[in-house]
Fold this protein.
Amino acid sequence: MMMRKFIICVLCGAVLLSFLSVSAAAEEPVKYYVAKAVAKYPHDISSYTQGLFFHEGRLYESTGQYGESTFREVDINTGRALQRLDFDGRYFVEGSVVFGDRLYILTWTDGLCFVYELDGLRYLGQFHYPRQGWGLATDGTSLIASEGTSYIYFIDPEDFSTERSVQVVLNGRPVDYINELEYIDGKIWANVYMTENILIIDPASGKVEGVVDCSGLHAKGDRSMRDDVFNGIAYNAVDGSIYVTGKYWRYLYKIELEEK
């Protein structure tokens, strides 16, 4: 009888140790980084940057404001538009992304997502969107959208239905104002509106695994009279490089991360 109790205790202890080990691994501390500029490129100061991304090595940008909203392919070396789509003044354009051969462009409060053929920017149609449109990205399976709250939504690109959502949480607390999004190496990178921070988020749980401080990038001498907030993350899968900018900023910065 005593031997049986001993065996049970040993087994319980092993299960407890295994549970504690898994819990400890799940609670790894958040990593903090500083973004360092390794190069900078001209950025059109008329661009109120909302969406920024690379597709097959080519840079694209969607810009906002009523009467100023555009989508453009950008020459990274000059900041000039190689092709450009201008929107009716009643629309305020937000995030954008390519999925397959289709371009998806969110509007802010109109409840619409426009769909285009990327080659030639031919209009294909639109979807109803039941939330505010902020950021837009893709993991290659779903579209990923933000609405300016602490929630991120995974959306079916075929019918724009919501598949699931996660709440972004940093050290146990929700983070609001999740804005422009990018999907990099299995993680969601997100601007936090009105800050110069990027969050690196686990897409399964919403847990913030890293915080990137970008406040040192945009030096006083780089600023223009029109400068607005930090916004825009673009990952070039061709060479693994990452670029950031801001609304009306004069420069696009290629960055590398240094852990604090």
The longest strand covers residues 31-42. The chain has a mean pLDDT of 90.
